[in-house]
Amino acid sequence: MSTNPGHRIAAAVHPRWTRREALSRLAGGFGSLALARELTAEANPFAPKATHFPAKAKRIVYLVMNGGMSHVDTFDPKPLLVKHNGQPVPGGAPKTERSTGSLFASPFAFQRRGQSGIEVSEIFPKLGGLIDHCCVIRSMWTEVPNHEPSLFMFNTGTIQPGRPSLGSWLMYGLGSESRNLPGFVVLCPGMPVVGSPLWSSAFLPAVFQGTFLKNTETDPYKLVAHIRPRAGMEVQRRQLDLLRSLNEEHLAARGADSQLEASIEAMETAYRMQTEAPEAFDIRREKPETLARYGDSEIGRSCLLARRLLERGVRMVQVYYGNSQPWDSHEDILVHQRLAAKTDPAVASLIEDLRERGMLDDTVVVFGTEFGRTPAVENGSSTKLHYGRDHNSYGYSIVLAGGGVKGGTVYGATDDFGYKAADKPVHPHDVNATLLHLMGLDHTRLTYPYSGRDFRLTDVHGTVLRGIVA
Amino acid sequence: MRNWTALSLLALVTPLAASTEEAARKVLSARCWACHAQTAMGGLRLDSREAMVRGGASGAALAPGDAAASRIYRAITRTGGEVNAMPPGAAISTDETEVIRDWINAGAPWSDAQQHWAFQPLRAARGETIDSLIGAALRQRGLAANPRADKRTLLRRLYFDLTGLPPTEEQFARAEADGRPDWVGRLADELLGSPQFGVKWARHWLDVARYGEDDFSGTAVIPYENAWRYRDWVVEAFNAGMPYGRFLMAQLAGDLMNDDSLLAATGFLGAGPWYYGIAQPPQTRADERNDRIDAVTRGMLGVTVACARCHDHKYDPITARDYYALGGVFASTAYKEYPLVPAAEAEAWKKRKQESDEAEKALNRFLDEQAAELAERYAGSMAGYMMATVGGSTEGLEPKVVARWKEYLAKPEEFHPFLKRWFSGERTRAEAEAFERLLTEIREEKRGVDERNRKRVEEANRLAPKVTRTIVLPGGYRSEEDFNPGAYIPSESLERNRFVAYNRTFGEAGSPLKFSRELTPELLPVARRAEYERLRARREELKKALPPQYPYLMGAGEFEGHDLQLNKRGNPEDLGEVVPRQFPVALSRGQAIPLREGSGRLQLAQAVAGHPLAARVAANRVWMTLFGQGLVRTPSNFGRSGDRPVLPELVELLAARLDGGRASLKDLIGEIVRSEAYQRSSGPQAENEKSDTANRYWWRQNRRRLEAELLADATLAVSGELDAKLGGASSALTPAFTRRTLYARTGRFQQHETLSLFDLPSASVTCEQRVVTNVPLQKLYFLNSETLATRAEALAQRIAVEDAAGGVDKAYRLLFQRTPTAREREVALAFLAAGGEKRWALYAQVLLSSNEFAYVD
User: Fold this and answer.
1) Across chain B, which distance is largest between two alpha carbons, in Å?
2) From the list B291, B639, B784, which residue is nearest A228 (CB)?
3) Prediction pTM value
4) Cα separation values, A79 from A76, A109, A227, Å
5) What domain range includes position B444?
6) How far apart are CA B425 and CA B432, in angstroms?
């Protein structure tokens, strides 16, 4: 029997409502014995929660090529672009951020890869080799050809700050499988455009926000706040024993109180985290060959750290390629080649390692970006090189793999030149609906009562892309 | 652990009547209204009982009392035979169909939104008090009230609730010594008179006011250095006991009330959030207005008007017209800075700033011209410099330029598209001269391209449509009507390799013929040096002489008064009819309240300040702060989808105490803390818990954890480090920060991690109510943060004495206002005896991490 985890968890974290009142507010689910049982987890907002239906995946690693990865140079080959290179865009170009000129063929060659024969750009040779595990969505579109709103859209389902992020919704809806690590971790060697509002929990409880780690550091003690035992573990144990006895006496004098009990438990968990977290966050413990395989690069180290965290039960790891917006190749698309050279071994190794560990089946890998780039050359700024592409929110590609995603498939298509999503257009809402679906959640039922209505990640939109679910 | 399972089962057999309708509405709105509300597909509307009974083209949809006979039930259960299965696509869940079945069988109750309790005038019973109302309710339900809390507990509660700080040893001793029966009243008056009262209570309002001291654009933080003046105004308003109506009015229209002391209050509107150039201006400005509508209507009135942005409200009688009628007021209002110095002084500063900026520009212009001349000069001897890098003569060459050519030619071959032969070893004069000729040619070509591009921009700007309305945000940011104006003007460029060669020789920073503003002065010809020195000296002089900007208030002011057009489905680019500015109709008691004088803000402020909802919402928030939960437990939503109070008469009584906005919150707080209800112990009572687990009838006080700020403040207070000074600019929250946390910098871009960890709400949206979470990451702060270690060491200084037992006693007096029990003393002494140089600091850390310290009974 299904229940509404939104209200259930609202009850769990909403200190002013008891479970009973939350029950009486439920739109559905009256008479559910299962519900009553599940509600006992109140004290710990991270306690794993039941899904709406059996999940295909347990965790998500979300890789963001921030800045706007060009689709026509990576996963969406356009022969007509080659044929009509240098000619004006038929019917004129849609309005993007800056001025664009004539059609501009990709300087990179595409090759058919794998059993599926999906064409992938030569700048992703290793990832191309894994294409049979991937679903390429070639018909993405979003609203605004500007970074901030598009970053907000795929993360939070709206173009402005103030809504919870996908990772926060997952924490709220599913809890965490790791008792000793944060459940939603965001990695970036620097800070992506917009920054922390992208992993905010907004009106959800603040504990559901992403834990951001600026992983220019590899020393876990510099990476994670407050993790080094200040007094040494032994002395600390003595402190905690004393604390426990004081807290228990305090509790005994007051009768049962789940908050006080949870507080005592949380302290013990924190004590254990001090040994487990540094180990988890320390990629220096990997073999040199492994480090070399991922690549001696920021994205390589991020992907490796992501894998370590996923192995230890972290629900969602989001990786931003780099500081600010490295993929924003307005002036020179050849920059993409340099970025891809670092990204390709990192992402391919991550997928391979997950596969080797039997984790690819229940880990969704998202290889995404905030929007694509124009098939026409950018000629907006008059003193610059005209060898790049402008932002294109009308059409772009992302790649999904693992976790219940149908591998070796292409979903949707852009028009002949790659300007606009044409066949089966997919909006970030649809991707989010699908990701939640893969995680066992119905995006229309994962709601939180706020501001007079039940809010959702997908607002009033979103359709699960059944065609890509294995 | 309480037995929740049993209690939950109890709930299942006592459904609340109101929630049947509420639950049905939720299902209908989620599943049916997309097609069967305003759209009325098949002529059928399912958003009123009357319409459902009337039905659509295929007949009545609802037979109240008989689900089986109702087409709507047959449609959703797909058992209708001739009735189409609805909604199309996947069937809705059994839970949901059961909700509809139960609701129909219960007679399909459908209350009139206008009759909703919160939309009625205040109905306060005369002669009643807080305790008479609660007492009657408790008696009626057979609940026994807890006794009054013991004096220590009550004293501690009063101190935290009224000042946000624990009592000092002296304060505690003095209050405890007051044996007169009305000691609570006297203490309450004293604490309400303390300036720390405002510090504590301002923070609660700042949650509602989504107070932040920055916004952001891209990764750039836009700090609001003067935002704190609004925060200080709020503190002072609480301390002064400002009438609540005036408190609200000032924040909406303080610039229109002929009282300069109220200008700072308009920071509620002026200090953001602003979204700058995040998306197209019409959308972004609409989103900013939406924030104001939301903050005002939910924060002040408890009505969720922002729900009506795309369509009429699904639960409350608020229409999309109401939304845009209100939106026009904010569209007619602008960000405005109010200098806190005489106008002449502000003008003088601006003038000096402009002079300083111009001197800087003049210097830069000069340097750029000189850099171009240098490039021109050295470009003529490229070949000579190239040869100098491979052992050729350096006579007459500038050593600094030689060094740059060396660096340039040391870069790998792929960096140089036109030097293949040179890199293959042919480093000859002929090769160098060929390169010089080619680069000279490319440079000429580039000049032609640049000139043609310049003309295109000029022409396009001449033809560009005139901007109709410019909105200026903080920092002088101008929002024009167009998105990225000028960005669409096409231009041309060089072929890729030619551009690369040009750029790497003349263009990029560090390229051999690019002379930066730092390098250029070193290479200036003698004849130019005097001019350079003159310009530089002037720039330095003006810059040095320019004082920091005068202080100013970030506030609101009048803008061109204009009505908005309805945005169809919330889309600011799809405009409908013009909607005259006015107050929401359903909240106007049948008498239209136009908001059209100037921006309409003053009229809006008046309508809000005296509104019964404003009083109810404020009274409820005060109650919530003093009891840990509200009488209405959706404090920003008093509408039909909100919580219904079980003691509405108490809400009415408290709201009436605000006397139409003429009384202050301080007065109300004073009355509540004097009540028996407030003073009860927070202990459990098994009998009561059976029927009122949630304490909805207030038979006890609620145990509460200190909020993020109070925990930090209390820690500083007991460690003896607290600097209790009021007001002034915020500073960063570091371990060295010893002021009350209210004065720590608070951002929208990035919140302080620790405060956030302890549930500080986002400053981007108005906060309804803080949540309280209990997670291990919080405990790592107690275990390992430098902040807590610093506090613990300071506390250790206060308690470390020869006589260890005396030290322990002192610690308990400071932290808990009591003496330790024998057992507590014993374990403490054992801990201390186990030794270590830092034993007192380690002990202090344990006490500061304890539940007793973090919770108020």
Assistant:
1) 108
2) B784
3) 0.82
4) 10, 10, 54
5) 364-524
6) 12
